[in-house]
């Protein structure tokens, strides 16, 4: 029986990197990267959620090259992932990126936790480094959405680099790049690759600005100069509306933009009381938006007025032609009201990441710095209101 109660897992390590396993669309699976105090003692926890029994099964992979700042997974190959991690070189700390393969037996969501998974962790196979010595510190790695897992983008200091992976991901070459120029803090903090326009567009954040790039020409398409009052932390594209982008930042706000008209946001949310680190649109129902913040809260909002279904459903011409239904239609012409669906308070530390499952559209995970991972579901009443 499906239950709305949260399921909580403690990693026993500090952590800030979380991703769903994008290519896994059957089993509910998340990956978490740690920031242990012991530098070479980092791990990736593979979290399989068994929603029938409401339990978490975990497997541990060793990541012995340094603490993990960002983790993302191939859209095409369940076993392939990338990490951005710190390492010390010539007594300086640098952030590098690499592509890895997990052991074959772990690549698909399993519902068994080996009894000895923590005492007997497995190792990751290094496929290739995204060698960035010339380009500075890696902020994040973005895989081409819905791609074949052969193209990715890395953001390093003020460079945007497009990589081609060859020979089963064991070789990475830079195919083109762009450089951030101008005044202010010229260092990328985050970015998102748009699933629209044949995957030719990327949005990036640096300082208080958001920029759009056309990766065919590596040229800047737009720049929202002061998108937030303070640092922009995260971005996400609406999966169903090609020009809509969400952003969040240290001004405690979440903003929604139509990038065709960047003079002001379409909508702004001010529900968090501290920095907002993470914003994510639901992959199927884009009115559902998740945010995580240093106020230790996760907020699920219903941004229906700017969604692809502002009347609660996609309006079909045929529905409008039946005179019997006319009275009903009049009533439902009014767009639905935006609202906060729920505020989740299971965390006691900064929530650095929120992610929707790639297998179950009603399920999401959040991660706070103390290593607490919480799995929650969209409230059942709302789910049925959206579906029925």
Helices, by number, come to 3
* Distance separating the two termini: 20 Å
- Strands in their spatial order, largest beta sheet: 2-3-4-5-9
Please, how many domains? 1
CATH structural architecture: 7 Propeller
Residues in helices, as a percent range: under 10%
Radius of gyration: 21 Å
- Specify the structural class: mainly beta
The average pLDDT value, as a whole number, equals 89
Proportion in β-strands: over 45%
> What name is given to the CATH topology?
Methylamine Dehydrogenase, Chain H
> What is the CATH top level name?
Mainly Beta
Please report the total strand number as a whole number: 29
Question: CATH superfamily, called what?
Answer: YVTN repeat-like/Quinoprotein amine dehydrogenase
Shape: globular
Q: State the low-pLDDT regions, or none.
A: 315-323, 325-331
Sheet having the most strands: 5 strands, mixed
Keywords: Repeat, WD repeat
WD repeats: 225-261
Biased composition (Basic and acidic residues): 324-336
Pfam families: Beta-prop_EIPR1, WD40
Ordered list of secondary-structure elements with their pairings:
Layout: E1 7-10, E2 15-20, E3 28-34, E4 43-50, E5 55-62, E6 68-73, E7 80-89, E8 92-101, E9 122-123, E10 125-129, E11 138-143, E12 151-156, E13 159-166, E14 171-179, E15 188-193, E16 201-206, E17 209-214, E18 219-224, E19 232-237, E20 244-249, E21 254-258, E22 267-269, E23 276-281, E24 288-293, E25 298-302, H1 317-320, H2 326-332, E26 339-344, E27 351-356, E28 363-368, E29 372-377, H3 380-387
Parallel strand pairs: 5-9
Antiparallel strand pairs: 1-29, 2-3, 3-4, 4-5, 6-7, 7-8, 8-10, 11-12, 12-13, 13-14, 15-16, 16-17, 17-18, 19-20, 20-21, 21-22, 23-24, 24-25, 25-26, 27-28, 28-29
